[in-house]
Design brief:
mainly alpha
Amino acid sequence: MIHTLLASPTFATFLFASLVLAITPGPGVMYIVTRTLGSGRKAGFASIGGIALGDLGNAAGASVGLAAVLSASASAFVIVKLAGGAYLVFLGLKALRAKPAATGAARTIQLSPARLFRDGFFVSLLNPKTALFFAALLPQFIDPGASPLWQSLVLSCIFVSIAVCTDTLYMLTASALSPAIDRRRGSRPYGRYLTAVTFIGLGVYAALANPRSTR
């Protein structure tokens, strides 16, 4: 069944659509870039893992009907959307209150990978637009003659794999630019303010953005 799905003439279209959507910056990409600039490449990898797991959670939820529930119930969508926005604002306030590191070396180990992974997971999972995206895109490429659940899960995993690759490119780019940004900032503790403003802005965006926005 997987071979039939991958051999489908529409599969190339799915790959192209997934690449375009994955490479479009959204809250997940901004979270990864901000954490990489603030805490280094190791933090970026941990953030990518959390975002990917959150995307998989949304994909699984969409596959079993969560997205349909969110689409049908305006109140359910608003509750989940506001919860995601509130969590992003919470991360921004925590960054604002964090004590600046004494040295550049300390700056790279301020936050544990487990915490970064957890935060990335919730940033992604509490974004109902991701589940709605899966619900809107996947049915276009599913063969009604086979198991819709199994096909949607396979396609979801493929999309998340593509997103991990594009997120990694964003992270590596941010990591490469980080030394130049640090030299420009000097010893001034602007990093935590940039992180705080970014997360608070993303929280407001997540709460107010149109449901059809990208991840």
